[in-house]
Write a structure and sequence with these properties.
The chain is α+β, with helices and mostly antiparallel strands. 20% of the residues lie in helices and 46% in strands.
């Protein structure tokens, strides 16, 4: 009986390590720990499609789109990851199989990681040195996926996946 309970617990943890959207699942990086998950009903969301730039002493995306969509967000801690490049490649390969790449940036070309973490994703845990961040946007048949990888100064690596499901009217 104890073995059955343990097996069920392992199975439920394994199931929770997939980001889901529009019938597609994006598998989490090996050893990833899901630290937060949220679902937002259909409303307006800003999808960043460009690096950050300074305009009138204020940082903002150089290109973006406002989507009327349902949004699902997944943040993972990756204790077994050693390099942000390998993590980013892992997610890019999966997302390229379900959609087309619309925008990508790496390192300092993305802009302020503080802005990404605190303003775009509203998750301070993603903040870290700019040279260890990567971001990509993929368009799929029924929506959009974004992936942001960041490494903190403590060398801990985090991944954030957002899925925007189109077809539902904004509030």
């Amino acid at each position: 009986m104890a073995h059955l309970i343990k097996a069920l617990m392992v199975f439920s943890v394994a199931l929770s390590c997939f980001a889901k959207g529009e019938g597609h699942s994006v598998g989490s990086f090996p050893g990833a720990e899901l630290i937060s998950e949220s679902m937002e009903s259909a409303k307006s969301h800003m999808l960043v499609l460009g690096a950050l730039e300074k305009v009138d002493q204020e940082l903002r995306p150089e290109n973006f789109k406002i989507l009327a969509a349902k949004k699902s967000s997944y943040t993972y801690y990756l204790p077994e990851a050693r390099q942000t490049k390998e993590v980013f490649k892992y997610y890019l390969e999966q997302l390229q199989s379900i959609g087309s790449l619309e925008f990508e940036c790496k390192g300092r070309e993305c802009g302020s990681s503080s802005y990404w973490a605190n303003k775009i994703f509203k998750s301070a845990i993603l903040y870290g040195p700019e040279q260890f961040q990567s971001y990509a946007v993929f368009r799929t048949s029924a929506g959009w996926w974004t992936v942001y990888i960041g490494q903190r100064a403590t060398r801990k690596i985090y991944a954030r996946l957002d899925h925007y499901s189109l077809g539902e009217k904004a509030d």
